[in-house]
Amino acid sequence: MTTLDPIPLWIDGRAVDARSGRTFISENPATGKPLAVIQEAGVEDVGSAVAAAKAAFPIWSGMTGAERGRILHRAAQILRARNDAIARLEVLDTGKPIAEARVVDVTSGADCLEFFAGLAAAIAGEHIDLGGAFAYTRREPLGVCAGIGAWNYPIQIACWKAAPALACGNTMVFKPSETTPVTAIELAKALAEAGAPPGVFNIVQGAAETGRALVAHPDVAKVSLTGSVPTGKRAMAAAAETLKHVTMELGGKSPLLVFDDAHIENAVSAALNANFYTQGEVCSNGTRVFVHRRIRDAFVDTMMPRIQRMRIGDPLDPETTVGALISRVHMEKVLGYVELGLKEGAKLLCGGARVTDGACADGWFVTPTVFEALDDSLAIVREEIFGPVMTLLVFDDEDEAVARANATPFGLAAGLFTRDLARAHRVAARLEAGTVWINDYNVTPIEMPFGGVKQSGLGRENGLAAIEHYTQRKSVFVQLGDVATSFL
To answer: 40, 249, 281, 432: which is the annotated catalytic residue?
Structure first.
């Protein structure tokens, strides 16, 4: 039995039925039961959404940055006013605790809209004095942008894609993850109510077929994707056919280095947040926790009681700290990694089991899990699990820690704890990651660029850097003399 009305597509400023006639079900991870019926966009629907965005582009890009900024500001205010209602939908769709969704998911999305609303009027080129002539550059929008979201932070990621794109004068067609498609339409409604012209922001729900049609469409100028490495590679290859601009924020297997002079309580807090917040379903999570041998025992002794106090249960209960994994399939994948870790010889310090009692009986709940491994070649050390599984690794010196931290094809994020200021900056410079946190972890203020290196992606979201990825420069030369330059 569904708990929400069927959710349509959003094209050209209104809710519309999918021409494909197909639907799919979104499940509540905490109960395993259907949550909502979602209309699925086929190729024709994607074409309609892109056409609407293309038609709206000259209208939206023709507005001043200040005008666009005011609309984005109003949309942010609408989201904030509806925070609790949207957060509840996010919990039903993702399984994350309501205590997280209320303070992070919607509010961080609104923060993003406000940040880029403030920048919209300040997007400008430069003047170049050439004596008897001058040149100037214009920052111009790209056109229709495709945004493809992930399932762990649906409304936040929708805002991370839409806000910079729209602030720069682009229009967008956004495809939320088929696993968590419920809340994206709330952003579309907020933008429409705020005054965005029809076609500026469109929603097409669906799975791989929908995404492929969107990425391949010849009228799409840019693709911004958050997802797995394999998905990113396929999308980038498809985008190459028409040389689209791309931004890819992909997977990770991030290291967290805890040196022997670290504040242990704070380091433990960071490790817990970096592994068990949102059930570990965070791409930047520091799942490889390298701890100096001298403080290994103190670190573990401090961490274990705190894990035991974590409350696993109904995500709508404000006291819950660990919610449900996104699906049965994903839960089985995570538990499969637990079995593999045991087979490969890692020591299980806690957790590693499905929870099947009380409020967790019918959902996809896994206890917070900590392994200790002596070998960095184990699968649980090398591969992204995307669940509540931490691997503890012991090191003896700085060079060793950095070398082992960098020994991965991923490079999304990294963290380190030390009270030695020189070491902090020295190690941060050596770590191969798009973001490095010093004495903290997984803090992503909208003002700070975020993205990966190596196979964790390319391009940056958020901060001033995002403007680079949603605009293109045009150079204009102006001759001030009576005669144009001649070489003949």
So the answer is: 249
